[in-house]
Amino acid sequence: MSENKLQQAWMNLLGVFTTAEHRLMESLGLNPENPLGVELIARMKKNRDEFERRVDEGVKTALSRVRAPIDKELATLKARVEKIQTRIEEQKAKRKASKQKET
């Protein structure tokens, strides 16, 4: 799933929560400006924020588990490339020294 689609799905989910909150207030017959309504909205917001935080943590954890092997492989490949580059530089230096001896 692309990042854009994931973001869109997340925004849709948050919209569902907001709609559910409004419907709950309406079904209870509470005015959002009533002290009880204000408290209920504050609690719903707190719960939504906590839910969002937990989802973010879960996504980060999952991504780190997926990325760990990739990062390890990249580090291994980088070390191999650096080793090859060092060998190439050594070969160039040997050739240059060899050519200078010939002249």
**Into which percentage range does the β-strand content fall?**
under 5%
Distance between the termini: 63 Å
The class by helix and strand makeup works out as mainly alpha
Uncertain spans, ≥5 residues at pLDDT below 50?
none
Describe this structure in words.
The chain has 103 residues and is mostly helical. It has one domain (3-77). It has two helices and no strands. Helix 1 packs antiparallel against helix 2. It is rod-shaped, with a radius of gyration of 30 Å. The mean pLDDT is 83.
What is the strand and helix layout of this fold?
Layout: H1 3-28, H2 35-102
Please name the defining characteristics of this protein:
0% strand, single chain, mainly alpha, 103 residues
Structure described in brief:
This protein has 103 residues and is mostly helical. The protein is 91% helix and 0% strand. It has 2 helices and no strands.
